[in-house]
Amino acid sequence: MAAESNGRYWNPEAQTMPRQALDALRTERLREAIEQAHRAPFFAHRLDAAGVRAEDIRSPEDVRRLPRITKADLRRSEADMPPVGDYRPFGLDHAVRIAMSSGTTGRPTAMIWTERDLDVERELSARNHYRLGIRPGMVVVGAHPGYLNGGQGLQQAAYEHMGCLLVSIGPPESVDAAERALLSIRDLPVDRWQLFPAALLRLREAAERIGFKGLPEPAEIGPLTQHEKISAGMECVAYLGSSCGVSGGAHLAEDYALVEAVDPASGEPVPDGERGRLVVTSLGRDNPMLRYDLEDMVRIEAAPCPCGETSRRGFWEGRAKDIVTVAGRDVLPIDVWRHLDPGAEFVIIRPERDTGRLPVKVEGERDRDVEDALAHALELPVDVEWVARGELPRAAYKAQRVVPAGQS
Ligand SMILES: [Zn+2]
User: Where do the domains of the chain lie, and which CATH numbers do they carry?
Assistant: First the structure.
C-alpha cells in the first residue's frame, strides 16, 4: 500500500487508474468481500437467502443482487450476539482498535478494526488530506472527539501516516473551553485547521474574546467542506472521498468501496446526478460491509473530472432523517444553506402537519433577497424568522439543522 506521491495525487496509480482496470479490480475485490463476509453468520444467512455466491459475480454492478442492510440490523445483531454481534468474520481477538457509536438513537454499536482494516483507512485518509493540500511536515489542528468515539484516533493515525503533526484540542464544549484550547496552542505555527463548522463557530467566539488571530473564516470551512467530503461511517469506510477542488463533489475511493445512490423504496440506482440513498460496500478489508444503507442522501456524478482522477464523484446532501417534506417536496438543510451566507446559523422547523409552507429560522438582519431566493429555489412559500445572532443553540460537534415545531 506504499504510495508514490507526485505532488498532485497521494497515490497516482490508484487515483488515475483507467476505468476498465478499476472495474476488474473492483470485481475481484467484491468476490473476495463476499467470500469473506460469508464466514460471518449475519452475512452468510443473507447471502444464502438471496442465492448469491462469490463465483457468480461478474461485474461491480452485480453488487445490486445483495440485500441492503442498515444500522438497525447491526444493532440487532449486537443485541442478540453481544458484545460485537455476528456480522464480522474477524472478531475481538483480531482487532487492534475499538470505538463505539454515540448511540443517541438506541443501543451504541461497536466498531472494530484489524490492522488490515486500519491500513485501508490510513491510505484513504491520506488521499483525502492530500487533495485538501495537506503535505508531510504540516502542523494541523483538529477538534475531533476522542476516546470511545474513535474519530480522533482515526484522525491521529491518518496524520501520522502522512508525516504530519496533528494537534488535537477535542471538540470545545463551551466558549470557555475553546478559549483555554486557543491559549494553550497560541504559539504553535499552525498550517491548517481541520474543524467541524460547529467547533469553528465556538472557537471564533473565543478568539474574538482574547484577540487570537489565524482561525479560518466560516466560509472556508462551513457546510461546504462537509459537502465536499464524504464518509460511509467508521463502521464501513470512514474516508470514502474528498473533493479535488477542480470540480464539485468528492472523488470516491472506488477501489476500496462500491458506492451507490439508490431509490429508498426499490433499491434500484437513481439516474446519474440525482439524489438517492447512499449505499456502500467496503472492499479490501478483513471485515467487509455489504450494501450498507447509511441513511444519508447523496448524488453521484460519473462525468470525468479534468483533474485526472478517474473515480466518480459523490455529493453528500444530508441525513435521510433530516428530510422535511412540504407540499410533496423533500427539503434538506443543504437546500436552505445554499442560499444563505456560508457561516450563517439556521434551523428548519419541522412542521407538525404539512401546511404547504416551510418554516425556517435564520440568525441575522432581515434580507428580502435571501427570502426570495429560498422561495424561488425550493418552489415553496418559505416563512423565514430572522433572529438575533447567538440566539440559536450551538453544537460542540455537529449542528442540528432540523428541529421539531415546539422545540425551537
Ligand atoms: Zn477531480
Answer: 17-113+225-320 (3.40.50.12780), 120-221 (3.40.50.980), 323-404 (3.30.300.30)
